[in-house]
Amino acid sequence: MEVKIAEQSVHSSPAARALPPRERILIAARELFARHGVHGVGVEAVAEAAGTNKMTLYRHFESKDLLVAEYLRGLAAEGAAIWCEIENEHPGEPLAQIDAWLQRIANHAEHGNESGCALASAAMQITDPAHPGRQVLEANTRQHRDNLIRICRASGLAEPELLADQLFLMIEGSRVAWQNVEGGKPTSTLAALAAGIIASHRR
User: Fold this and answer.
1) How far apart are the C-alpha atoms of 37 and 122, rounded to whole Å?
2) Class for domain 65-199, per CATH?
3) Residue 3 forms beta bridges with which residues?
4) Domain spanning 14-60: which CATH class is it, in words?
5) 31 CB contacts (<8 Å, ≥6 apart)?
6) Rounded CA gap, 157 and 65, in Å?
7) Which segment of 16-20, 87-91, 150-154 scores lowest on mean pLDDT?
8) Domain-wise residue ranges, the chain
């Protein structure tokens, strides 16, 4: 059920007001959806926070579902960019790439970066397989898993597909735990857990 949320415009500065309406809408949607959940925010609240109106919002996004999908697509693109950065930082070093990936996730959660948790939160909220946002989430999950499988195969470790799945499930579980465990920091032990899993796959 959507609720109306009274929010001060997230685009009160002159520079922000100069942005095109579509960009303002997406920035407002990201802030509101990440904070209140995709089902907890109506298009009225997004339009108001973006300094525009529903008519303009619907000119750029035919439905709220398509707005949600585009919001998720932006988060997924940030995750994909991280894989490219890691490979550029550690060319030809698959184990270093895995370690860097784990460190990125732990550091992002530690410093309040919401991308991973926002995707995990949306995945729990959007259950309809026909929802365009669900399709974005599933494609993102497949891409992350495929990237991890590729790196694990390059590592020369035994049973790379199994290793990739073990690491992937550990990461996904940590993201959900980060949202639901108050006062704890479940991502802080990722490196140690991963080291044990990787050691079990050494030939």
Assistant:
1) 7
2) mainly alpha
3) 41
4) mainly alpha
5) 10, 49
6) 42
7) 16-20
8) 14-60, 65-199
